[in-house]
Amino acid sequence: MNPWALRESATFDRTTIAAIQRAAETGIYDIRGWGAKRPLPHFDDLLFLGASMSRYPLEGYRERCATDVVLGDRHAKHPLHLDIPVTIAGMSFGALSGPAKEALGRGASEVGTSTTTGDGGMTPEERGQSKYLVYQYLPSRYGMNPDDLRKADAIEVVLGQGAKPGGGGMLLGHKISPRVAAMRTLPEGIDQRSACRHPDWTGPDDLTIKINELRELTDWEKPIYVKIGATRTYYDVKLAVHAGADVVVVDGMQGGTAATQEVFIEHVGIPTLAAVPEAVRALQELGVHRRVQLIVSGGIRTGADVAKALALGADAVAIGTAALIALGDNHPRYAAEYEKLGSAAGFFDDFQDGTDPAGISTQDPELAARFDPVEGGRRLANYLRVLTMEAQTIARACGKSHVCHLEPEDLVAVTIEAAAMARVPLAGTNWIPGT
Ligand SMILES: Cc1cc2nc3c(=O)[nH]c(=O)nc-3n(C[C@H](O)[C@H](O)[C@H](O)COP(=O)(O)O)c2cc1C
């Protein structure tokens, strides 16, 4: 083999060539699920400075490190009191099967945290199994029902998602089962595009009116969250707070989606790491940091990610993709079937096709029946426990008796990009680029 002859182009690498060939053959753009796959500055580029001489660590098995968090105590009569700072992000019934939604509720409830509906409305199974259920109020209004609003424990007004800020979602016809169609009052089997903006708004003032409407409708009981895809985060967070949000959810570009154009997922938005300090700066300048809580999502995988998001100033995090993996998505037990679909366990992202062998991102009754919501819920609860214990381990090592006491001062960055974005010093220096 001649290495010179087989030199791969960095610009036209194999993936790029395959993408061009696919486009030339089909004439349609690629749609897929999951989040951005390109390398981006992320929480991996940060490290904690554990305690040693100048700081005092806490003993793992003897000294308490609390994990509870209160969300939405700015205006709501009934804020959410969660046992852990990790919540389950909104994922639609339609994108996910009924049993998968139920499992998310079961897993979250077992460890005392919340789960969230999604585009397409609330199913009785997920309401029944969720101790705390956040109801999404979306641009599409698919499945929107005022009675369900009142059944929820909090309301999340969705302005955007990290995977596709400025864009709407897609639910392809083969996932529009009779039940999904009925909940959305749309015909069966026909592709649905979710709107990219709310039908009755033209600007931020309309958000204020909408939040007030939602509060009146629910007797000022429920916290109102506002979810934004990370772009001009500093301004968006300020506007959301000004409009009356109790909680702001910032979803970075690594955030997962059920189905969007590939070009959108990879090229629109800013990394989660860059968005968190911008959101915190906006909250601090308004004097509401910790009073309006910040939930961060987009690529959270480990307890270290949780701890780093909290240290940068988040009050809690939300997980989507990792929760699906914990339920059993991309499990090697289905390796042969992923291969038949032209994919492999660990790579399957065609959530839009409804062919998921694990029975999670599907509306096919036979595939969905493979998935056991009790077993799935147990797996998710286990995973959430591990995330929490890992975050506690780090917090104790930094001398904190609550995971939310972690702070930027506990962090350093291993790349200049991450140091500039997270506004923490490059490791071994006191240099924060740009300050
Ligand atoms: C299968 C799937 C369906 C989703 N559906 C919705 C939705 O209906 N509404 C919404 O606001 N976000 C939706 N999202 C985005 C998540 O709420 C969340 O922002 C994202 O998954 C967080 O990033 P992560 O997947 O890296 O944890 C969906 C994500 C996935 C993976």
From TrEMBL:
Keywords: Oxidoreductase. GO terms for molecular function: glutamate synthase activity. Residues 104-126 are annotated as: Disordered. One of its GO terms (biological process) is glutamate biosynthetic process. InterPro entries: Aldolase_TIM, GltB, GltB_archl_type, Glu_synthdom. It comes from the Bacteria. Residues 73-328, 356-400 form the Glutamate synthase domain. Belongs to the glutamate synthase family. This is Glutamate synthase. It comes from Mycolicibacterium novocastrense. The lineage of its organism: Bacteria, Bacillati, Actinomycetota, Actinomycetes, Mycobacteriales.
